[in-house]
Design goal:
- With 244 residues, this protein is of the alpha/beta class.
- Helices cover 33% and strands 17% of the residues.
- The protein has 9 helices and 9 strands.
- It has a 5-stranded parallel sheet. A two-stranded antiparallel ribbon has the order 3-4. Strands 8-9 form a two-stranded antiparallel sheet.
- A hairpin with a 2-residue loop joins strand 8 and strand 9.
- The longest helix is centred in the C-terminal third of the chain and has 19 residues.
- The chain starts with a strand and ends in a 15-residue tail after the last helix.
- The site of adenine has 11 residues, from strand 5.
- Adenine binds next to strand 5.
- It is found in: Cytoplasm.
- It comes from Naumannella cuiyingiana.
- Specifically methylates guanosine-37 in various tRNAs.
Length: 244
């Protein structure tokens, strides 16, 4: 998989060269390119932002450097491969494990990491003609920019690629793989500070262990994330059925 990330803080993406993802990059499983948006400016101050039309607080990222950066990256690729342009924004589609699996099937991801109040909307509209554009959000809170979101998504997607996680079994049993939170886990010693490992896990009855784990997953999900058990049913806004 090819992954390109554009940011005004390319150093923010350095952790992608560490640990399992770093190994995937060195092994060629992930072809990673990190690009400095300011390299695509032409003025002395390397300007990337401007005041918002219509007024308001904060600054908006200007379209020209984004256009040059994305054109240059897209022209460097195979023209037969349609990239997926991921735009981190609190106004985007919530990122979850289902989207991680979808993205793991794509050949080429490009992250456009905005700062300030976001990127001029015309950039998103322009590239919708040449790429699959997905504005996404990490959660209902506001970060200073898209870099942390790009790190999180690259890790969540990268670890699903064949060969990145040593034991693929661990992908099957983890939280969210079956729509539930993972059961509690224990290791040695069997007694620690007076606290025992649940007896069923030491008994060797695999059927009983599976039943106990399923029950624990249900209890944990019901307590911590009841929304996963009862997703809202067909919530609609009158008059907006055909909206994007
Ligand atoms: N940029 C700022 N806040 C964000 C969020 N919650 N998710 C993704 N990108 C963001």
């Amino acid at each position: 998989m090819r992954i390109d990330i554009v940011s005004i803080f390319p150093e923010y993406l350095a952790p992608l060269r560490l640990s399992l993802l770093g190994k995937a990059v060195r092994d060629g499983v992930i072809d990673l390119g990190v690009h400095d948006l300011r390299a695509f400016t032409h003025d002395r101050h390397r300007t990337v932002d401007g005041t918002p039309y219509g007024g308001g607080a904060g600054m908006v990222m200007r379209p020209e450097p984004w256009g040059e950066a994305l054109d240059s990256i897209m022209e460097s690729g195979d023209s037969g491969v349609r990239p997926t342009l991921l735009v981190p924004t609190p106004a985007g589609r919530p990122f979850d494990q289902r989207l991680a699996h979808e993205l793991a099937e794509r050949p080429w991801l490009i992250f456009a990491c905005g700062r300030y109040e976001g990127i001029d909307q015309r950039v998103i509209d322009e590239y919708a003609e040449r790429a699959e554009v997905i504005p996404f959000s990490l959660g209902d809170y506001v970060l200073n920019g898209g870099e942390v979101a790009a790190l999180a998504v690259t890790e969540a997607v990268g670890r699903l690629l064949p060969g990145v996680v040593g034991n693929p079994e661990s992908l099957v049993e983890e939280s969210h793989s079956d729509g539930l939170l993972e059961y509690p886990v224990y290791t040695k010693p069997p007694l620690w500070r007076g606290r025992e490992v649940p007896a069923v896990l030491l008994g060797g009855d695999h059927g009983a262990i599976t039943r106990w784990r399923t029950e624990q997953s249900m209890i944990r999900t019901a307590r911590t994330r009841p929304d996963l058990l009862h997703p809202s049913q067909g919530l609609t806004v009158p008059g907006l059925e055909d909206a994007e």
